[in-house]
Amino acid sequence: MDAVRIGLIGLGGIATRSHLPSLASLPEVVVQAGAEINQVQAERTQRRFGIPRIYSSYQEMIRKEMLDGVYVCLPNFLHYEATLAALAQGLHVYCEKPMGLSSEQALALVTEADRRGLVLMAGYNYHFDARFRRARRLLEERRIGKILQVQGTIAKPGPYIGWDPKSDWYFDQRSGGLLYDLGSHLLDLLLYLTDIDIDVGSIYATARTSLPGLPIPDNIVAIFKDYNKVVGSLNLAWGARANLIMIQIHGTAGSIIVSEEYFEHRTAYGGGISRLATLFDNMRAILKQRWNAIIRRQPSDTTYLDASRNFIDAIRGKSSLRTNAQHSIRIHRVLEAIRDYLGQDSSTEEH
Ligand SMILES: NC(=O)c1ccc[n+]([C@@H]2O[C@H](COP(=O)([O-])OP(=O)(O)OC[C@H]3O[C@@H](n4cnc5c(N)ncnc54)[C@H](O)[C@@H]3O)[C@@H](O)[C@H]2O)c1
């Protein structure tokens, strides 16, 4: 097969930090064009990555260019229309998370891609993280017995410090705020790891807004039950100093505690020896990661590269997708229930 011709829609933070460098290292890919409404950002990115053609309108780009696929890296509220337009043009799509902003939109996109036989991938890159994959393998082997409880936390500085988004959509209510930003990632991970089927009728949630004047909550906690009686919680924070994604899964025969930088399979057996082994294992993994980053100059986070490789291989018919677009529909049903619950909760106010 000839080179896979890619266009990027939106040339902001995630496109320039992660997708363009990843695509540049895949020899079978040609980045042929980009679309960006901010002219300064467009020109800067074109110079830096040597993109042949830049458009201010993505509609024009997908009409005029002979592309195989696009990356949709726009503010959340534009994902649906841009992804649908690209699919309608016969293009494969890598859509940054969340895939649309409702279960209806996610379903419509999955249906359209299936109908046209196109690859549609939602950008849930944590599926490609070695520690989360290891957790999934253990869970598939039922190594912690029957799951009793799951807890998920993402606590990050958010758009306040260090993220450097190229536009201010993160605070725009139309994009769903923290809930759709980090909440979608966290739910995706929980569904990917455990396959729980959350009963949306069981959801309770509460939230606060720490910055005066912010139109959306920046700290959210939700609890739920699934149809097999697993109980669980989601904890989301913007404005935190930690850079933490942590999942705990507790079962009748053990627990898994996993984050981007830590992995532990805790059982009733092994005691001190098992703790020591966990310590060494984690230390070795972190040292290897740092060694690769400093000496071999490999990015310390390879999940975006692995996700892109999977997308391109799927376009070439060499492998199937390792993220499941159907998950997006389930993710949205839960997000909608939390959003609706918070909408009725009068304690969600500024502090
Ligand atoms: N998977 C991840 O870990 C991850 C991390 C960060 C961001 N994201 C996702 O990536 C998306 C973009 O986030 P970001 O941080 O890059 O934001 P950003 O603001 O830095 O980039 C968005 C870009 O889109 C441009 N844009 C807006 N409207 C446009 C239009 N109509 N046509 C063309 N360009 C337009 C903006 O000018 C901006 O440059 C979001 O959906 C976000 O959820 C995912």
Report on this model:
40% of the residues lie in helices and 22% in strands. It has 351 residues and is of the alpha/beta class. A hairpin with a 2-residue loop joins strand 11 (244-251) and strand 12. The radius of gyration is 21 Å and the shape is globular. The mean pLDDT is 93.
Order of helices and strands: EHEHEHEHEHEHEHEEEEEEHHH
Report, as a whole number of angstroms, the end-to-end distance. Answer: 57 Å
Number of helical elements: 10
Average pLDDT, all residues? 93
Q: In what range is the share of β-strand residues?
A: 15-25%
- CATH topology-level name of the largest domain: Dihydrodipicolinate Reductase, domain 2
Heterogens: nicotinamide-adenine-dinucleotide
Q: CATH first level of the largest domain: which class?
A: Alpha Beta
Number of strands: 13
How would you classify the quaternary structure?
Answer: single chain
As residue ranges, the low-confidence spans are none
Topology:
Layout: E1 4-9, H1 13-24, E2 29-35, H2 39-49, E3 53-55, H3 58-64, E4 69-72, H4 79-88, E5 92-95, H5 103-116, E6 120-122, H6 130-140, E7 147-156, H7 177-194, E8 204-208, E9 219-225, E10 231-238, E11 244-251, E12 254-259, E13 262-266, H8 271-294, H9 303-315, H10 325-344
Parallel strand pairs: 1-2, 1-4, 2-3, 4-5, 5-6, 7-10
Antiparallel strand pairs: 7-11, 8-9, 9-10, 11-12, 12-13
The protein binds nicotinamide-adenine-dinucleotide (NAD).
